[in-house]
Amino acid sequence: MAEAIQKKLKAEVEKYAQTQKDVSKSVSARQKLETQMAENNIVKEELDLLDSSNTVFKLIGPVLVKQDLDEAKATVAKRLEYINGEIQRYETLLKDYHKKSEQQREVLTSLQQDLQKAQGLTPGKV
């Protein structure tokens, strides 16, 4: 009986470890998006300071190409909207991962207690 519990415990530990890796990847991706958001907000603020008499250039590969100010503002606004959506998606994903992680932690605790009982140990004396 203890062997079956140990196998199940090992499988649950692996699931838990994978969930933690997924959480880590998602946090990293969200941080990257937040950095991009901050950069794009700075660009938006700078573009808001300009008027139609100013010239705006866009870097395309190694070349600077003249761009209409309204077009540049619209591009930055769309980029900010997209980044916001992605951040919200990652927030939802992280909430789901945390719920899943908590459930797995409860299962692990229960299995550890079952294993201790099967081995003749009382929980808390370990």
Verbal overview:
- The protein is 78% helix and 8% strand.
- The chain has one domain: Helix Hairpins (Orthogonal Bundle).
- Helix 1 packs antiparallel against helix 2.
- It has a two-stranded antiparallel ribbon with strand order 1-2.
- The protein has 126 residues and is mainly alpha-helical.
How do you describe this structure in short?
With 126 residues, the protein is mainly alpha-helical.
Give the helix level as a range of percent. Answer: over 70%
- How would you write the strand order of the largest sheet? 1-2
Name the average pLDDT. 91
Number of domains: 1
- How much is the radius of gyration in Å? 26 Å
**How would the global form be characterised?**
rod-shaped
CATH top level label: Mainly Alpha
Please count the beta strands (DSSP E, at least 2 residues each): 2
Question: Helix segment count?
Answer: 2
Percentage beta strand? 5-15%
Q: Which regions contain 5 or more consecutive residues with pLDDT less than 50?
A: none
Order of helices and strands: HEEH
Protein topology:
Blueprint: H1 2-49, E1 56-60, E2 63-67, H2 69-118
Antiparallel strand pairs: 1-2
